[in-house]
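Progress against Task 2.4 (sequence-to-structure conversion) is shown through the following example record, which the project officer requested during the mid-term review.
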Amino acid sequence: MVKTRFAPSPTGFLHIGGARTALFSWLHARHHGGRTVLRIEDTDLERSTPEAVQAILDSLDWLGLDHDEGPYYQTRRFDRYREVIAQMLAAGTAYHCYCSKEEVEQMREAALARKEKPRYDGRWRPAPGKALPPPPPGVAPVVRFRNPAEGVTVVDDLIHGRIEFDNRELDDLVIARPDGTPTYNFCVVVDDMDMGITHVVRGDDHINNTPRQINILAALGAAIPRYAHVPMILGDDGLKLSKRHGAVSVTQYRDEGYLPEAVVNYLVRLGWSHGDQELFSREEMIRLFDASDVNKAASAFNTGKLRWLNQQYLMQADPLRLATLLRPHLAAIGIEPEDTEHLVEVVKAHVARAQTLVELAEVAAYVYREFDHYEAKSAKDHLKAAASAPLRHVRDALAALPEWSAAAIHAAVEASAAALDLKLGKVAQPLRVAVCGRAASPGIDVTLWLVGRQPVLQRIDRALAYLDRGND
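Structure tokens generated for the chain above:
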């Protein structure tokens, strides 16, 4: 059975590249009817924080990437790592090295001077007929893996194909520090072995770690997983995606008003495709995705494309769900609607005019509160002296309506235009600017109905006063 794992380090928020890796790993397992494991690689004790762990869990939950096992925490498995290290020392596949950091640095500098790859020279590596010096007193050794000295390690990568590594280029990796704490590459190997991981989907910045991990697995007699190294994501400018490109953490996209299904859909298309199809349901992704179909070239992140995609999902979403999601974004600008049914109608009327929930809150804010000023161009084009008579006439018609409904409002506006022998736009546009502060809104009847009779009349009065003052 296929079994994948997502193994983030909790040294910060889950960034968008990590989220794509989690998605690809999750989809590969689900496509093959397999299982997923969540593993928190928190051995960096100085930088790992509980807040970062929670942010990762919250991000995965928001994206809908559940896991069948875990979360497992590496810091809770130290006894197991020490057990395996002891077994390797006893088997001779690992050994103690008493070199100081300064000595190792000197080895590397000497190798560079000889124009060779900087590496540990193996002076404490046991060999037949080799006499090792006595351990220096008071020096705590590291433990090194005894990497094969000859041959080639082959990575049959699902994305990049066959990659060969000359074992002579791989020095003997430190697998335990002087204080006995295990190192990253060793913990990963033991975890993958113990958890029965069959497929490792991760960023291609780990490719150079892979031959070392394969050799350790082989020394332990463990099955070797299949690897799929996902290419990096580039920013809009073609450089590696980083903080300078804006929102790179998953939680920031949530806070900026993106829907999780839109973010997931966008991420799956970063390096993977199915013909020219752009929109995928979760079920379609699971049915169609396989890690072997991921492109080996880096993908460019396009914020404009994500915004467009999010708008498609906003327009397809249940308005009641959007109303619920919109509330915190409205609260952020000081608006807290009491009537949920009314808020749902506000969403329906305005959703096509926004690409994010933040924009939706901003574009619909006029419904709930008076605006500070008229948009300059809208006022210049529509709040002119000629607008005074249409505004006065339609105000009286609206004030006299027996019921406040979109149909009744529409009839009143049309009647005013007919009475003044004007085209409908000569009445509707000044009215729209008076009520909304700008020349763009949903249909004038729906707009006025949502704002409400009294606020509409008050805003028309404000516009008339503005005209009487000479637009100052």
